[in-house]
Amino acid sequence: xxxxxxxxxxxxxxxxxxxxxxxxxxxxxxxxxxxxxxxxxxxxxxxxxxxxxxxxxxxxxxxxxxxxxxxxxxxxxxxxxxxxxxxxxxxxxxxxxxxxxxxxxxxxxxxxxxxxxxxxxxxxxxxxxxxxxxxxxxxxxxxxxxxxxxxxxxxxxxxxxxxxxxxxxxxxxx
Length: 174
Prior knowledge:
Blueprint (H helix, E strand, L loop, with lengths): L1 E7 L3 E2 L5 E10 L8 E5 L5 E3 L11 E7 L8 E6 L1 E3 L2 E6 L7 E9 L2 H6 L3 E8 L16 E9 L21
Parallel strand pairs: 2-12
Antiparallel strand pairs: 1-3, 3-10, 4-9, 4-11, 5-10, 6-7, 6-10, 8-9, 11-12
């Protein structure tokens, strides 16, 4: 049984270039080792690696930290490449033993287009493993675990005008 969780360090943003730090956590909550784990995230295409600061994650490396009984000390740390297939962005994780969880961290930088739209920014992630797959006759995965994270855009339209003159008074027409 595989579970996914997604957290962010903010619940709202109010300007372009605000940074949202995401953490994706994949947990093996079952009683057998999980293999062929794929973690899909809609923001991988527009995000940057939290460690390196590299943008547009497709084709770049992100760090995965694997934890066991001690949540303070990873039992393994490794790099994975963000891949793209059929317009979806994902990473493939190493096997997860029973009780282990893996974390992927990255930053999303709010764009001016995000601000101008005024719509909430919604981030969806799904995860699957070879052991969790139920498939239809066509081979489509039917039970990926999914999580969504939404944060609000706060728009603040503001305009100011200032007028000055080079004289303080006029005494006739020139």
